[in-house]
Design a protein that fits this description.
With about 280 residues, the chain is an alpha+beta fold. It has three helices and twelve strands; from the N terminus they run ββαβββαβαββββββ. Strands 4, 5, 6, 7, 8, 9, 10 and 11 form an eight-stranded mixed beta sheet that branches. The protein has a two-stranded antiparallel ribbon with strand order 1-2. Keywords: Lectin, Membrane, Transmembrane, Transmembrane helix.
Length: about 280
């Protein structure tokens, strides 16, 4: 025990009277020194105080973490909102741009046809598509509403002097995607294009026999996967390509599919080209 743990106190005791007639004087008092120990706090009290501090610290930590999590959720929601807004605006601009180019092409042809005076036919050429076909530059596209196998779809295109579409640029892929979104009724409502590896597995060829340019492909994530179905029920795998998506952004929306699965189709042929005549 240390010196600091001891408290000294003076206690005065008075001698008892020997006789009733005798009274002790103040000088006869006896003093005794008594040591009183300080009271130590019990272990239970210390544990209770420590426990209370720990609980308070945990509550503060939970409140802080909850606030940070809420702030992160709000920030993430705002970022997602901005992303969808930007994507929607970009898609709208793309559609408007395609429509504007189509209108400009048609208007230009009409102006050339009626220009006066006209001593000789204009040197400019004009591209036109027949009714029911969509025009993009010098090419015309037909989007069917009937579902056929890949071979049947190609035969129908050839009857109209066309073939299944061959995609040769990002501009063409963008035009087709924007057009398809207006024509699709559900996510699986996709369209055949003229690409297949039915001759040699893994060697993708267009219908005209030219190989796929590997630097210009638009496969969706994980495609092509040549899926054989459950318990290999699709023994031939997936050797033909379809495209389309009802939502989403970007241009990578090609999917390999069994050539015998009925799908809609996209036919492509060159627009009618000619020199306008004076009228």
């Amino acid at each position: 025990m240390t010196e600091a743990d001891v408290v000294y106190s003076d206690v005065k005791f008075t001698k008892s009277k020997e006789k009733a007639t005798v009274t002790s004087s103040p000088n006869e008092s006896t003093y005794a020194e008594v040591k009183i120990l300080k009271t130590e706090p019990s272990a239970g009290s210390q544990q209770q105080a420590a426990g209370g501090s720990k609980v308070t610290a945990e509550r503060v930590a939970v409140v802080v973490l909850s606030a940070l999590l809420l702030a992160a959720v709000i920030a993430l929601g705002y970022i997602c909102y901005e992303y969808h807004q930007t994507t929607g605006h970009l898609q709208k601009l793309t559609v408007e741009n395609a429509a504007m180019r189509k209108n400009i092409t048609e208007t230009r042809c009409e102006v050339i046809m009626v220009q006066k005076p006209c001593p000789q036919p204009p040197a400019d050429t004009c591209h036109k598509c027949q009714e029911g076909w969509e025009q993009n530059g010098p090419q015309c596209y037909y989007f069917s509403t009937v579902k056929l196998t890949w071979e049947q779809a190609r035969e129908r295109c050839r009857r109209d002097g066309a073939d299944l579409v061959k995609i040769e640029s990002e501009d063409e892929q963008s035009f087709l995607m924007q057009t398809l979104r207006d024509k699709m009724t559900e996510p699986e409502d996709k369209f055949w294009i003229g690409l297949t590896d039915s001759v040699t597995e893994g060697t993708w060829l267009w219908t005209d026999g030219t190989p796929l340019n590997k630097s210009l492909t638009f496969w969706s994530k994980g495609e092509p996967d040549n899926w054989t179905g459950v318990n290999n029920e699709n023994v031939d795998g997936e050797d033909c390509v379809r495209m389309g998506t009802k939502s989403g952004s970007g241009l990578k929306w090609w999917f390999d599919k069994s050539c015998t699965a009925p799908q809609k189709r996209i036919c492509e042929k060159s627009a009618v080209t000619g020199r306008p005549t004076c009228i």
